Amino acid sequence: MQTGCTCGWCGRDFNGKTRGGHEQKFCSSGCRTEYHTACRLYSAALVEAGFLHMSLLRSWWAHKTDYVAKHVQATTGEGPLP
Ligand SMILES: [Zn+2]
């Protein structure tokens, strides 16, 4: 399904698609890639500047990867990856 959207990264209007109830957030793969690169560099800058402690980021990551593994197991019946 096509909907009128505004790119979350560059602000350009585009005809987005909805998949699984989620609206397309970016007008292009370039904007999506730039967004993810900026997120990675920004979080690293926060750690370097002392505004975010690496252990907090690590704790969040462990929780997230544990959540994803449980979600995959619940939906597919497959166990966690080795
Ligand atoms: Zn864009």
Outline the structure in words.
By secondary structure, this protein is of the alpha+beta class. It has 2 domains: 1-51, no CATH class; 53-82. The chain has 2 helices and 3 strands. Strands 1-2-3 form a 3-stranded antiparallel β-sheet, with no helix packed on it. It is flat and about 40 Å long. The model has no long low-confidence stretch (mean pLDDT 87). It binds zinc ion. Residues 7, 9-10, 12, 26-28, 31 line the site of zinc ion.
Bound molecules: zinc ion
Alpha-carbon distance between the two ends: 37 Å
Q: Mind describing the biggest β-sheet?
A: 3 strands, antiparallel
**In the residues, how many domains can be counted?**
2
User: Strand order across the biggest sheet?
Assistant: 1-2-3
